[in-house]
C-alpha cells in the first residue's frame, strides 16, 4: 500500500546537478553517472577492483553463507557510550559507562546504524543505513570480524551528525575497494549535506588529486524505491517538533531509529510487521526527540510486531538489567521484546 504522506513537505522537484539522481519509485536499475566515477591512482580498473572485492566479501570467513542478515553496526546515542564525562567524574560513578569500557561489554554503544547483508550471484550485497560520527570505529571492529568488504549503498534516515558524520570516512572504500558508493537521501537532508559535506556533493571545489569519498547522491521521495533489488518503503516520523526523520520498511522488517511521534499515516505502513527495530533512548521517559522505553513499549503494543529490538539507548539503560525486565513481558503480555547491541547479527528473510 502506498499512502500519501502530507507530513513530508520537502519531497518534490529540485534542480539536480550532474552528480545527483532522482530515484524513480520501484525502478530496478540505477543510473551511473560517468562524472562520479574516476580511475584510482594506482592505475587499476575500478570495476575489476570492485568485482574482486565482491568476491572476497562473499568468500570471507565469518559470513553466513547464503543467509540474509542484519548486523547492528551501532545501537547508541550521538555521544556514544561510555561517556568521557562519566569516566572522568571524580565524585559519581556511572555503572553503565564503567562497564562499557570492558572488552565485549554490551553497554558499549556507538552511533545507531545497521547493515543489511544478503547473497547475490556476484557476492554478498551490503546496504548500510546511516554512517554517523563513530562509523569508522564501528567498521573497524565489525567489518573484519564479519568479513564485510564492500558497501554497496548507504541509506540516510536524517541529516544529524550521528547519521551522516561518517560520510567522509567512506573514502577508504571508494579509494581502495570500489569506484563509488550510492547514497540515498531525502531532499531536505540532501540540502543539509550541501552545506555540511559540500566537498562531497560538488567535488569541483576540492583540490585536484585530493582523495575524498566518491559518492553518488540519489534523492528519494515518499514512494517505495529499489536498492539492489530490495524494495525500501520510507516511514516518515517526527524526530522532535517539525523535524522529519525517515524509518524504512524492507520486506516485513521495519526500522525506525530516531522518533518522537509516529503520524497516523505511517502506522498503515507498519501493518503485519514481523521485526520492528525502534528507538528507545532512556528507561524512564521520552525526550523531546526520542521515545523512552515506556513510550516505545506502548508503540509495540499498538503496532503488534512479531518481535521487537530496541536501539538508540543512552547510558541510563543497562543492557543486562533492562533485558531481564523486558524478558518478563513475554510471560505477562506475550511481547517478544529485547535490546539490541553493537555487533548483534541476526538472520532475516528479505
Provide structural commentary.
This protein has 350 residues and is of the alpha/beta class. It has one domain (20-347): Ribonuclease Z/Hydroxyacylglutathione hydrolase-like (Metallo-beta-lactamase, Chain A, 4-Layer Sandwich). It contains 11 helices and 15 strands. The protein has helices spanning 46-59, 84-87, 95-100, 135-146, 161-164, 171-176, 187-196, 198-201, 264-267, 293-303, 319-332; strands spanning 20-22, 69-74, 113-118, 125-129, 153-155, 181-186, 215-220, 225-227, 230-238, 244-250, 253-256, 275-279, 307-311, 337-339, 345-347. The protein has an 8-stranded mixed sheet. A 7-stranded mixed sheet has the order 8-9-10-11-12-13-14. α10 (293-303) links the parallel β12 and β13. Residues 1-18, 27-51 and 55-64 have low confidence and may be disordered.
Q: Quick check: average pLDDT?
A: 87
How many structural domains does the protein architecture include?
A: 1
Q: In total, how many beta strands?
A: 15
How do the SSEs run, as a string of H and E?
A: EHEHHEEHEHHEHHEEEEEHEHEHEE
What is the level 1 CATH name?
A: Alpha Beta
Distance between the terminal alpha carbons, to the nearest Å? Answer: 18 Å
| CATH topology description | Metallo-beta-lactamase, Chain A
Write the layout of secondary structure elements.
Elements: E1 20-22, H1 46-59, E2 69-74, H2 84-87, H3 95-100, E3 113-118, E4 125-129, H4 135-146, E5 153-155, H5 161-164, H6 171-176, E6 181-186, H7 187-196, H8 198-201, E7 215-220, E8 225-227, E9 230-238, E10 244-250, E11 253-256, H9 264-267, E12 275-279, H10 293-303, E13 307-311, H11 319-332, E14 337-339, E15 345-347
Parallel strand pairs: 1-7, 4-5, 5-6, 6-7, 11-12, 12-13, 13-14
Antiparallel strand pairs: 2-3, 2-15, 3-4, 8-9, 9-10, 10-11
InterPro entries: Metallo-B-lactamas, RibonucZ/Hydroxyglut_hydro
Pfam families: Lactamase_B_2 (PF12706)
Protein name: Metallo-beta-lactamase domain-containing protein
Amino acid at each position: 500500500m502506498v499512502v500519501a504522506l502530507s507530513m513530508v513537505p520537502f519531497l518534490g522537484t529540485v534542480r539536480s546537478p550532474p552528480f545527483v539522481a532522482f530515484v524513480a519509485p520501484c525502478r530496478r536499475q540505477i543510473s551511473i553517472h560517468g562524472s562520479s566515477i574516476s580511475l584510482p591512482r594506482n592505475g587499476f580498473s575500478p570495476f575489476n577492483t570492485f568485482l574482486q572485492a565482491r568476491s572476497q566479501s562473499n568468500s570471507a570467513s565469518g559470513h553466513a553463507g547464503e543467509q540474509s542478515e542484519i548486523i547492528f553496526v551501532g545501537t547508541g546515542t550521538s555521544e556514544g557510550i561510555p561517556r568521557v564525562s562519566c569516566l572522568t567524574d571524580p565524585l559519581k560513578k556511572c555503572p553503565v559507562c564503567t562497564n562499557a569500557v570492558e572488552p565485549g561489554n554490551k553497554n558499549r554503544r556507538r552511533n545507531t546504524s545497521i547493515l543489511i547483508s544478503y547473497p547475490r550471484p556476484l557476492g554478498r550485497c551490503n546496504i548500510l543505513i546511516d554512517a554517523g560520527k563513530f562509523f569508522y570505529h564501528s567498521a573497524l571492529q565489525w567489518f573484519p570480524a564479519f568479513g564485510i568488504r564492500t558497501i554497496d549503498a548507504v541509506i540516510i534516515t536524517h541529516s544529524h551528525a550521528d547519521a551522516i558524520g561518517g560520510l567522509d570516512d567512506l573514502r577508504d572504500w571508494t579509494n581502495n575497494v570500489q569506484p563509488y558508493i550510492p547514497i540515498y537521501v531525502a531532499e531536505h537532508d540532501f540540502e543539509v549535506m550541501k552545506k555540511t559535506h559540500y566537498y562531497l556533493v560538488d567535488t569541483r571545489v576540492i583540490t585536484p588529486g585530493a582523495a575524498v569519498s566518491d559518492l553518488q547522491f540519489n534523492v528519494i521521495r515518499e514512494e517505495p524505491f529499489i536498492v539492489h533489488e530490495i524494495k525500501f518503503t520510507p516511514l516518515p516520523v517526527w524526530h522532535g517538533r517539525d523535524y522529519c526523520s525517515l524509518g524504512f520498511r524492507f520486506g516485513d522488517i521495519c526500522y525506525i531509529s530516531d522518533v518522537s511521534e509516529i503520524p497516523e499515516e505511517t502506522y498503515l505502513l507498519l501493518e503485519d510487521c514481523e521485526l520492528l527495530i525502534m528507538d528507545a533512548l532512556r528507561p524512564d521517559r521520552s525526550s523531546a526527540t526520542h521515545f523512552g522505553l515506556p513510550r516505545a513499549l506502548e508503540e509495540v503494543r499498538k503496532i503488534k510486531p512479531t518481535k521487537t529490538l530496541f536501539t538508540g539507548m543512552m547510558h541510563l539503560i543497562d543492557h543486562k538489567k533492562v533485558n531481564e525486565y523486558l524478558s518478563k513481558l513475554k510471560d505477562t503480555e506475550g511481547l517478544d521484546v529485547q535490546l539490541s547491541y553493537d555487533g548483534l547479527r541476526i538472520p532475516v528473510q528479505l
